[in-house]
Amino acid sequence: MSGGALHVHQATVGELQTAASTVLAPLAVTAPRALTSTGVEAGAFRADIDAAVVGRAAVARIRGSGHLVQRSARAISSTDPELLKITLHRSPEPAAADQGGTQSRAQSGDFVVFDMTRPYRLAVADGCDVMAVGISRTELGRHADTVAARAARRLPADSGAQAVLAAFLQGLGRHLDELAGPAQAHAGDALVSLLLAAFTETEPGRMDTATELVDRIRVYVLANISDPSLCVDSVAAAHGISARQLHRLFRHTGIPFAAWLRGERLGRVRRDLLDPAQDGRTTAAVAARWGLHDPRHLARALKSQYGTTARDLRRER
After folding, report:
1. In the chain, is it the N or the C terminus that has fewer CB atoms within a 10 Å radius of its CB?
2. Closest alpha carbon to 138 in 192, 89, 211
3. Span 244-289, pLDDT tens digits
């Protein structure tokens, strides 16, 4: 989905299939034919669809008749984007999820993840109310495998980061039309951060792999990215490991911790410099908002990262 918002009221099955395939990737959508005792179809399928691109993710809300969504092996192509689909169910009846031999029944208030690079089935009953988020695996980096490992398993959204994400998505579904420009980008950043918090959250003492620890460190850093004291030593101490261990963990991701942190901060600085709403702030104030307090270092870093200066970024708008 390239941009803008999509709204279809009283959509047919075919329209829902077209919309879902456009927002995500090729999907087959079918609906049961409910018949009366005389053999006449009891009620036509209808669904309301609202969808939009929000930052780096596609978000859709589907409400209406029951239906079956299938991603078949035949429909999967090497040219399709490698997406993860995260669904939040608010339907009165359970939804049946199936992927790779894992099956679950999602109750109202549950999340379910699907890996769009593999076949899956999702059946929802009449009165369905489903929020769906499609996000590229590359956007989640090493987090993608952690999220994908939960495929077809229900994740209740009744507490913690999951409850926060659920509330955010419900609000987003009601206001998709009102997001544009910088507001859309900010909402997209918040969505990605909440997805990471909700799907990489583990209980203390249950840390099983290096990947899970890296995920938790990244979530922690992004939540505190405006803190200028954020560094290898402070982050390592917050997670009960040594600075040397932290360096080793990030070496396996392919990008050193300091370089990753600098890139995250510079990306936010660049976004703010391109935002007309930030014109009242000096470049130094924008950078300080994201924990960067050395103007000379900022100038060099922006030039190295983006091949441009702060002044030129503001002229690009």
Report:
1. C
2. 192
3. 999 998 888 788 999 999 988 998 888 888 888 788 888 989 888 8
Where would I find the beta strands (DSSP E) of 46-127?
A: 47-54, 57-64, 67-71, 83-89, 95-99, 102-106, 110-115, 120-124
The closest of 206, 205, 57, 239 to 138, measured between CA atoms, is: 57
> Which amino acid belongs to residue 286?
V
Closest CA to 195 of 240, 246, 137, 249: 137
Residue 26 tokens, joined: 């090729």
CA 303 to CA 242: how far, in whole Å?
Answer: 32
What is the per-residue pLDDT across 24-43, written as a single tens digit (0 to 9) for each? 889 999 987 643 344 444 45
Query: Residue-wise over 84-106: b if at least 16 C-beta within 10 A, else e?
Result: bbbbbbbbeebbbbbbeeeebeb
Q: 35 - beta bridge partners?
A: 41
Nearest to 116 by CA among 6, 23, 19, 14: 23
Q: What is the mean pLDDT of the chain?
A: 84
* H/E element, 6: strand 5-11
Model-level pTM greater than 0.70?
no
Contact 234, 225 (CB under 8 A): no
Cα distances from 273 to residues 68, 219, 243, 265, 299, in angstroms, run: 45, 24, 33, 12, 13
Specify the pLDDT at position 317.
64
Determine the Cα–Cα distance for residues 162 and 83; give it in Å rounded to an integer: 20
Q: Give every CB contact of residue 296 below 8 A, 6+ residues apart in sequence.
A: none
**Can you tell me the mean pLDDT for 3-11?**
79
Query: Does the pLDDT value for residue 209 go beyond 80?
Result: no
Tokens of 15: 């329209």
Please report how the helices 295-306 and 257-273 are oriented relative to each other, as an axis angle in degrees rounded to 10: 90
Q: What angle do CA 173, 22, 103 make, to 5 degrees?
A: 70
